[in-house]
Design goal:
Layout (H helix, E strand, L loop, with lengths): L4 H14 L1 H11 L5 H13 L13 H14 L10 E8 L4 E8 L1 H10 L3 E10 L3 E3 L8 E3 L11 E10 L4 E6 L1 H13 L10 H21 L22 H12 L5
Helix pairs in contact: 1-4, 2-4, 5-7
Organism: Pseudoalteromonas shioyasakiensis
Protein name: Recombinase RecT
InterPro entries: RecT_fam (IPR018330), ssDNA_annealing_RecT (IPR004590)
C-alpha cells in the first residue's frame, strides 16, 4: 500500500460511500433488504483488519473491494461476520499479476440462496463409511445410503461423501466426493489452524465442504443470473473446484452403482 494510512482510509471510505446509489439499486431491483451504512461498516472493518497482513485487503486494488461489496448487494447477502453468509477473501489474479479482493460464499449463504430460489425442497449432505450400504445412482437421482450401526468406529474408514437436493418438482441433483479429496481439504483446514477439523465435529465440517461443492452443480439448475453463477462466488480455498469432477462422478457411478457398497 503506497498511500499513508489516513489517505487509504479516506480513499476506501470515499469509494464505498460513492457506490450507495448502485448498492440500493441492486436491492430495489431484487427486493432484498440490507442497510447500506451497516454493510459499509462491515466491509470497512474487514478491510482495515488486514493492515500489516501480507497480501490482505488493503494491498489489493480498492476497485476489487468495491466490486465485491456490490456483488454481495446484488445477491442480497450480508457481510456480517457473525452470520457467516458470505465473506471477503484475496486471490492472486494471473491476468493482472496482483492480489485482488473477491467475494466468497459460506455454506450458510449457499443454503439461504438455494432455499430462497423457491425451487428447493430439501438439501442433505452426509459422509459414508466402508461398512455402510451406499449406492450412487447418478447426478439426477437420489443415492441409497443405509447403515445398521451408529458407531463410527464400527463403520470402518471414511469412504466418501455426497450432497443431494430434492427440488420442488420432485427431481434430484446429487454431487459426490471421493474420500481422498475430502481428506485433502481437511488437511488444508488443519494447516490453516481451523480447530474444528480436529474436533468431534469433523463430520459436520466435511458436510459443509460437500454443500460448497454441490453448489457448483445446483446453482445453474435454480438460477440463471450471471452473477449467481460467477465462479468467484465459490469458496475455492476450502473446496477447490476440480476439472476432474466429471471423472469423479463416473468413478463413483462405476464403483457404487452396480451393488451396494
Amino acid at each position: 500500500m503506497s498511500l499513508s494510512l489516513q489517505e487509504y482510509q479516506n480513499l476506501l471510505y470515499g469509494k464505498l460511500t460513492a457506490c450507495k446509489g448502485q448498492f440500493e439499486a441492486y436491492l430495489s431491483e431484487n427486493g432484498y433488504k440490507l442497510d447500506f451504512n451497516t454493510e459499509l461498516n462491515y466491509v470497512y472493518q474487514i478491510v482495515m483488519s488486514g493492515l500489516n497482513v501480507e497480501y490482505s485487503f488493503p494491498y489489493t486494488p480498492v476497485e476489487s473491494v468495491i466490486s465485491s461489496f456490490l456483488k454481495a448487494a446484488k445477491i442480497g447477502l450480508s457481510l456480517c461476520p457473525t452470520e457467516q453468509l458470505c465473506f471477503l477473501k484475496t486471490e492472486y489474479s494471473e491476468s493482472s499479476g496482483q492480489y485482488v479482493t473477491q467475494l466468497g460464499l459460506g455454506y450458510k449463504g449457499i443454503l439461504k440462496l438455494a432455499y430462497r430460489s423457491g425451487k428447493v425442497k430439501q438439501i442433505n449432505a452426509n459422509v459414508f463409511y466402508e461398512k455402510d450400504n451406499f449406492q450412487y445412482n447418478g447426478v439426477n437421482s437420489k443415492v441409497t445410503h443405509t447403515t445398521t450401526v451408529l458407531s463410527k468406529a464400527m463403520r470402518g474408514q471414511l469412504a466418501g461423501g455426497y450432497c443431494q437436493t430434492e427440488l420442488i418438482d420432485g427431481s434430484f441433483k446429487t454431487t459426490v466426493m471421493p474420500p481422498e479429496e475430502i481428506l485433502a481439504i481437511e488437511e488444508q483446514g488443519k494447516a490453516m489452524g481451523n480447530e474444528a477439523w480436529l474436533s468431534v465435529h469433523v463430520d459436520q465440517m466435511r458436510e459443509k465442504t460437500l454443500i460448497k461443492r454441490h453448489w457448483k452443480t445446483l446453482c445453474p439448475c435454480i438460477y440463471r443470473d450471471s452473477v449467481m453463477n460467477d465462479p468467484m462466488l465459490f469458496d475455492d480455498q476450502d473446496c477447490q473446484h476440480s476439472s476432474n469432477q466429471q471423472a469423479y462422478e463416473e468413478q463413483f457411478e462405476s464403483a457404487y452403482s452396480r451393488e451396494a457398497y
